[in-house]
Design a protein that fits this description.
Layout (H helix, E strand, L loop, with lengths): L1 H19 L7 E7 L13 E5 L2 E6 L20 E10 L2 E9 L10
Parallel strand pairs: 3-5
Antiparallel strand pairs: 1-2, 1-4, 2-3, 4-5
Length: 111
Amino acid sequence: MKKIITSIFLFSMLLVNAQDKKEQPKTKILDAACGQCQFKMEGHGCDLAVRIDGKSYFVDGTSIDSHGDAHADDGFCAKIRKAEVVGEIKNNRFVVTQFKLVPEEKKTPQK
């Protein structure tokens, strides 16, 4: 009887572990910037975009203003930044579920 109970317990643990191992979405490092100012995309105003394999896509799921002042010296309208993103292309737009700017490396003055 003990062997049967132990076997059932072990089998149920295997099933639970198999269900928990869902494939995690892949994080990608992409160029991110203002689509109009940096990627020369058609549009009105300033909107966040990412570049994937040389093609630019406007972003849904976060906004240009959610990541600091877009018009600051290090903002999306002034320069292209790197971002860690998780998402997918839908209807010619990039729909993000995660978006995190990669910190810029500080340049140390040379002596």
